TrEMBL record:
The lineage of its organism: Bacteria, Bacillati, Bacillota, Bacilli, Lactobacillales. This is Glycosyltransferase. GO terms for molecular function: glycosyltransferase activity. The keyword Transferase applies. Residues 31-139 form the Glycosyltransferase subfamily 4-like N-terminal domain.
Amino acid sequence: MKVLLYLEGKSVLQKSGIGRALQHQMHALDLAGIPYTTDILGDYDVVHINTYGPRSLLLLHAAKRRGKKVIMHGHSTREDFQNSFIGSNLFAPLFGKYLAHMYKKADFIITPSEYSKQLIQSYGVKTPIVAVSNGIDLSKYKKDPKKEEVFRKHFKIQEGQKVVLCAGLYFRRKGIEDFVEVARRMPDVRFIWLGSINKWIIPRKIRRLVEKDHPSNVEFPGYFKGAVFQGAMTGADAFFFPSYEETEGIVVLEALAGHQHVVLRDIPVYHGWVDDQSAELCHSVDEFVDSLEKVLSGQVDKRDAGYRVAQSRSIDLVADQLVKAYQQVLEM
């Protein structure tokens, strides 16, 4: 068995959760000893499509004509397309129909959570579907003083200075407005949002928020990976992710794997795997502020329970689940 892993628009999406999910798929296949390629002109038995653009659609139909098995990865839903790009809310119903078409044409769907599985099925999709976490490489987010020093030096963090971290694209859906408002109410704490996207494809209000409409204790320094990012995940004082909609949330797994204090919005995607024993779950700006103050003052510490959640979604376990999915597809 040989798998074609496909990601359209790699230069844009490699900075997103979908891009990191592809890296996790490669890692999982390496662990399982299953050969794979990213060359659409190469030979393969199963194509695993991670994106939804016109080239992805063409590949889906071409693979079906050649008698190849097609897996669509359910990273995206109509719900998480909303409140993202300019015009996303206007086009969300049409995008939902387009997604449903691709999901219906596939032989099999893998999606990161039971929540996203339920959403996809609600579109009338009858294709066999299984929930398999994007997974997390626990070793990458093991506490490392050298990586934390790289993070602290890069951002010139002073001794005793409290730092709250977030990571994601500049989307309203990610809760970026609440992130800024919480920071406004906690002026003695540094709030750093790691991530970036072309600012001209996001609404003007969000673009202005990133560029200038935020207090001085908020920073949007751009996208980071490697030692700076991994050191930030373990070296910050808390990870605050106020997203309104996710299909899993890879950054949440990364924070939990880093034994980090995690403060989240209480949304359906976390039900069944993240609870109030492993993270602070909130519903409003007031609750975010209250939870962060408790974390930063040492009144709350849920890191051990959070790490156990990350362990339950380790890349090793995901590799086994992916192999079973591929085998199931070949036997269809």
